[in-house]
């Protein structure tokens, strides 16, 4: 667009307008390039008269730009940081200063203030266009205006501020008495809130609200602060918690009544414990076998945590209690090694007779997922009972190995004497059922006569009497102990299942939260009830299999 201006006017008095309505008095035009002004109030005013001498006019080029609210402002939606948006705006202002105003264009504190004013005006023009129009025309605000109770006014820079009624307060900064008005729904307002949220170390919401009120009046301030905190990825990761699926049904091993004790067993290790061998001390470890049905325990000692030691302990236990039909254990490397060694040993047997015998003693070994001790709570809880007894008896002493073996048998007897059912105090009531009833026929080593059928009392075959005792104990187990397993003690709510592609953080109790690994779910492994209980997560260290209780989903979007 071309404009003819007089040659006798100063260059600093010309500015561009979107409508190109340059109304100036005669003899106020100048010769020179067009120039952009920051302050709209410095525009020349008047009526353009046609009496100007054409010989005094020179053709200059006027750059037509958008209105003031969009001239120097980058698109805020492309920024996620208030400081980056400020500095990007400073770069654009610096470019204008250098190329057009011929100034230095150094980014300093003053330029940051100019950029902030420009961004604030941009946000206000988008959020309150009608209110700004009424205030510029010195009209009263509409009755439906959101700013009606704030008594807003325009300051010297055209920024909308709160009028308020605390003007008389002394020694109070002007920004606090007349804060800048912003709409909490605008992206620039949310960038400011996010900046203060980060500066407050992602802390209390009220701290951020208090900091905002020192300079800004944000509409819907608390919902805005809460929304920004909910969208903060650091806060999402820090607050992410696993949501366990509803507690599953008990496995068959926990309800296999009328089976030999230790038919279904759990296995775990504990220790170390010190023993005195000659004049030196050596370490010993305990191997705890737990019957999942009657909750009895059997303890073996091993000298080292190796595959060979564990296999020998397994054979000693099988010789006394019988081979387990199914064995459950955690995911320790020594336990996995034992499983591999046993399977390889069975496969290496060549003679058919030995193969048949091995099949007769074959044990299915099931491993629970890594870092999921609650899957093995049936034996983990009993390890705690064993450790509690040992702490009382040992008291950090190092006995000889023979003494420790005797002590393990005593602890085994104590734990197996604990009641499984309610202990009645009524006179004449039966004693509470204990694991020893299934191992010894009574709650302790002392034999206790039971109730028999009248026909059994006159039988001379003792095996029939023992069989009748076993049937009695199993009948009591079904009637008294089994109903106690019905209710779900925790994890009763249905939760959204983890899906393939979810962004998750892996909970690690041995590391700080900010060191927990993050990854993406690659596969889900549902249980028999179709609820996802185990997932495979791809992390920067590789593929990891974890239970759903150790995986926290990070909300995205």
Automatic annotation (TrEMBL):
This is Integrase catalytic domain-containing protein. InterPro entries: DUF5641 (IPR040676), Integrase_cat-core (IPR001584), Integrase_H2C2 (IPR041588), RNaseH-like_sf (IPR012337), RNaseH_sf (IPR036397). It comes from Plutella xylostella. Signal peptide: none annotated. Residues 257-443 form the Integrase catalytic domain. The lineage of its organism: Eukaryota, Metazoa, Ecdysozoa, Arthropoda, Hexapoda. It comes from the Eukaryota.
